[in-house]
Amino acid sequence: MGALLRRQDYVRAVDTISFDVWEREIFGLIGESGCGKTTTARLMTRLIEPTSGKIYFKGTEISSLRRKELKKLRREIQMVFQDPYESLNPRMTIFSLVAEPLIVHGIAKNESEKKAMVNDALEDVELIPPEDFIYRYPHQLSGGQRQRVVIARSLILRPSFLVADEPVSMLDASIRAGILALLLKFRDKFNLTQLFITHDLAVTRQICTRIAVMYLGKIVESGQTNEVIDNSLHPYTKALISAVPVPDPTAERVKLLVKGEVASSVNPPTGCSFHPRCLFAKKVCREVEPTLAEIEKRHYVACHLLG
Amino acid sequence: MSILETEGLKTYYFTSRGVVKAVDGVSFRLNVREILGIAGESGCGKSTIALSLMRLVPLPGQIVGGKILLHRENLLDKNEAELQKIRWSKISIVFQGSMSAFNPVLKIGDQISEAILAHTSLKKSDALKRVEELLALVGIDSSRAANYPHEFSGGMKQRSMIAMALALNPSVVIADEPTTGLDVIVQAQILKLLKNLQETLGLSMIVISHDLSLISEICDRCAVMYAGKIVEYADTMSIFKRPHHPYVQGLIKAFPSVRSSTDLISIPGSPPNLINPPIGCRFHTRCPFAGKICQEVEPTLTETEKEHYVACHLR
Description:
The complex is a heterodimer of chains A (307) and B (315). The termini of chain A are far apart. In chain A, the strands form 2 sheets. An 8-stranded mixed sheet of chain A has the order 4-5-6-1-7-8-10-9, sandwiched between helices. In chain A, strands 2-3 form a two-stranded antiparallel sheet. Chain A has 307 residues and is an alpha/beta fold. Helix content of chain A is 34%, strand content 14%. In chain B, a hairpin with a 2-residue loop joins β11 and β12. Chain B has helices at 46-53, 80-86, 108-119, 124-137, 154-166, 184-201, 212-218, 236-241, 246-254, 292-296, and strands spanning 2-15, 18-31, 35-39, 61-70, 73-74, 91-94, 172-176, 204-209, 221-226, 229-235, 302-305, 308-310. Chain B has 10 helices and 12 strands. Chain B is an alpha/beta fold and 315 residues long. Chain A binds chain B through residues 32-33, 142-145, 172-178, 180-181, 199-203, 205-206, 226, 229, 239-251, 253, 256, 258, 261-262, and chain B through 41-42, 153, 155-156, 183-189, 191-192, 210-214, 216-217, 236-237, 240-241, 250-268, 270.
């Protein structure tokens, strides 16, 4: 019986984070598994409700929107998930998959308009010519092509904001670069603002203007991508960068700047949640939780050792 | 000096849709005390090579040709009883995703000792002692042998799997995607562990990965595969600094580095179906430089510089 009467524990997946995504930028959210980055993505798209806190989209607070208003919002905010194998219904043709949002939102006036919009969407994601793809089923496409279908489907409504959760992490390198190029093209061509969620720092360097690094539900460092990577200030960010393998055998190997493994988010450490793994932790780190402060111009860090 | 060698290895899968030529005439050599990388994208046949080397290719797969020489003895001539004595004690493997293969209701120590008991005449208590040694070797406190898998993190499970592969002191260890599915920091820790073990125990190791950065971090030499064949094979430094094969050049350009921001260039198209691979060079359908000969004649692996082999007509 003991097990049934246990006290309720809470996982603080995302714990007091604040960030803003600017129009027309690709903002990167980086972190390891369990740091809360996917939860953040789901909050931003209103797939789940925050316990507390507010989310503003174009100046409107969206975390309390009701069903009808939410449906309108969904035309504006779309999401791409990690796994292109699981996010497409295997029994639907590419045409019906890409056309589905048009039906849900009652957009196309007639069949020919629907067909034209699907064609355009497939051309936008470079599945050309569209006629070669519309009658096929997902299993007949490669992983990269499927992810393009997923992107076509989320962009057919011309949203202004796209949340992409690890959109390339299941794809081979030779294919990955093509999908990243596509996201950059949408930013430039359709002014598409994007939140790009990934565990891969090397990828953010290629496409994100600014990034925020998360650890155990909190943002520990944020700023311009190059600035955060080349001049990282938080010990966790430094550790993360030191751990990334470099595809160049002549590159100087750096020492791994971290100990142990991530703690549980049910019982996060007191003070700074990184302190048990930090090589530089002091007394204050064990006791007081650091807040995000502007250490250099537009470069925010949550660490007692700075400033 | 070579410890493991393949000559023209062919492993095919006989499926109802046709014969998948997953590994189609692959020759390479693993030298004593080196780490050889086998790189390639999904479906290029790299995991099938690992299974072939262990003689563990599952049906409908079959090794249909070539030789696998371990200490100069051809493993393809051995029967199952002989193989049992070779597997784990002379050549062992850390399988891809094996960290999720632990039985959740048995203690880690018992699961590792099971492997020892199955292959040696040790008593249970001695086997458990050996387990403690092995856990210490991979950086896990030996008291954790009494834990269940759910009490271990992903990194610790992977360490335990490496411990299991080392249980019978093999001289050759194959690691198939040893860090896939692990977080970046844990990945770096596991790579460091593999490199340390290779040096301290004098192991010869094959590391299989889709990740070129991982290969460049720890491998002395490497072979890059495409559609069931090795397209380039040399020491890691020359492959990364002077790649000759258009596929390898493309793959390197497609790989982002955290140290610099360069424009990534993807390779157009996708890898061919291995039931009906293209005639001639298997890469010609995606190659920007392909000429007439590439569509007709299959290139062979040729030495273009010292110990640098490339299978391309343009070299």
